[in-house]
Amino acid sequence: MEIDGRARISGKRPIIMVTNDDGIGAPGLRSLVRVLVSTNLYDVLVCAPDSEKSAVSHSIIWSRPLTAQRVEIDGAIAYAVSGTPADCTGLGLSGALFPSLPDLVLSGINVGSNCGYNIVYSGTVAGAREAFLYDVPSISISYNWKRGEINANDFILAAEACLPIISGIISAIKNKTHPTNCFLNIDLPTDIVNHKGYKLTTQGKSMGKMGWRQVEEEAQGPKMLSTMQMETESGVVSDNGTSARSQDSRLFKRELRTVVVEEGTDLHFLREGFITVTPLGALSHVDVDCQNYYKEWLPKVANQSYSSSL
To answer: Is 164 helix (H, G, I), strand (E, B) or coil?
Structure first.
C-alpha cells in the first residue's frame, strides 16, 4: 500500500508529519513541533485530533465526514481533525489535505508511557501504526509523565532527546536502509535530564491492571492520562460526553489498581531510567506452543459429529 508522491528526501528537506492522541493543543505535541522546527532541518506538518483521544487504540470513524480546521502553529502547516489518531494519520497521508506527503510520521509526545500490553490500547501507537500500514516510516513517542516531578519545559527536553533517533531514521530512509517491516515505539523516563541512555527493548507483558468503581456523577474521579497512568491528584474532571441517565442506570468508572512489570522488557528498562526503543509490527504473533496445540486440536474437534436434540 505504498503512497505515491512522497518526497523521498531527494534534493529537498525531509517532511515530517506529527500527530498524537492527546489533542492538537497538548504540550507534548507542541514541544515536539517546536523542537523540530527549531532545527531548521525539516518541513513540519501537523494533523492531530481536535480533542483528547487517549486510549482509543486503532479505531477509525466511518459514520460521518471528518472536519479539518486549520490551526496556527509557528513553523508548521497544521490541521485539527475531528477524528482519531489513526484517522489523522490516514488523512495526512492521503494526499487530500497536504500538498506534499511526509517521509516520516511521528505520533506524540504522549502524556504517559505506552509499554507492554497497554500498547494495544494506545492511540499514540496507533497513529504511528497507521503510517506503517501505508509503508511510511513512523515512530510513536511517549513520556512517563508524573505530576510534581515534571514541568512543561521537560517536554522540550524529551523532544530534544528524540532528535538523534529521528535524524538516524531520516538518514536511513535517504540511504534506503530503513527496514520496512517495523516501526518504532519510544518511551522516555520521568527524569529525562538524567536518563541512562538509549536501550533497544522488546514489548513485554507489562500492563496496568484496571478495576471499576461506582460513581454518582460522570465527571467524578481521577482522569486517565494514558493506558498505564492515572492523574490521582486532580479533583473533579469534566467530561464532554455527559448525558442524561435514567433512575434505573448506574455509573461505573475505570481506575488503575496496580501495574504489573515484566522483567527485561520495555517497561522494566523505562523504570530503570532508560530511553526505550522498541521495534513493533502490526501482526499479532502467537506462541509456538499455542500454534502446535491447536494444530492437533482442530482436526479432532472438526471431525466430531453432533446430533441436535431439538
So the answer is: helix
Instruction: Give the pLDDT confidence of 98-120 residue by residue, as tens digits.
Output: 999 999 999 999 999 999 999 99
Q: Return the beta strands (E) in the chain as ranges.
A: 15-19, 43-49, 68-73, 76-81, 104-111, 138-143, 183-188, 198-200, 207-215, 223-226, 229-231, 251-260, 275-280
- CATH classification of the domain holding 31: 3.40.1210.10
Is residue 82, in this structure, part of any structural domain at all? Answer: yes
Q: Which helix (H) or strand (E) holds 173?
A: helix 153-174
Question: What does R_g of the chain's alpha carbons equal in angstroms?
Answer: 21
The amino acid that residue 253 corresponds to is K
d(CA 291, CA 294): 5
**76 phi and psi angles, rounded to 5 deg:** -130, 155
Q: How far is CA 13 from the centre of its chain?
A: 26
Mean pLDDT of the chain: 88
pLDDT at 98: 97
One-letter amino acid of 6: R
Q: Tell whether 235 is covered by a domain.
A: no
Q: Which residue range forms the structural domain that includes residue 153?
A: 15-202+263-303
pLDDT for 52? 93
pLDDT at 114: 96
User: 25 lies in a domain?
Assistant: yes
CA distance 48 to 107: 9
pTM: 0.86
CA–CA dist 11, 233 (Å, integer): 50
Residue 227 is assigned to a structural domain of this protein: no
Give the pLDDT confidence score for residue 224 in this predicted structure.
52
Contact status, residue 130 vs residue 58, Cβ threshold 8 Å? yes
Please give the Cα distance from 111 to 123 (Å, whole number).
12
The DSSP output letter for 66 is P
Q: Give the whole-number percent of the chain exceeding pLDDT 90.
A: 73
Domain count, the chain: 1
Which among 191, 88, 176 is positioned nearest to 137, based on CA atoms? Answer: 176
Return the amino acid letter for 110: N
Torsion of CA 144, 209, 262, 159, to 10 degrees: -10
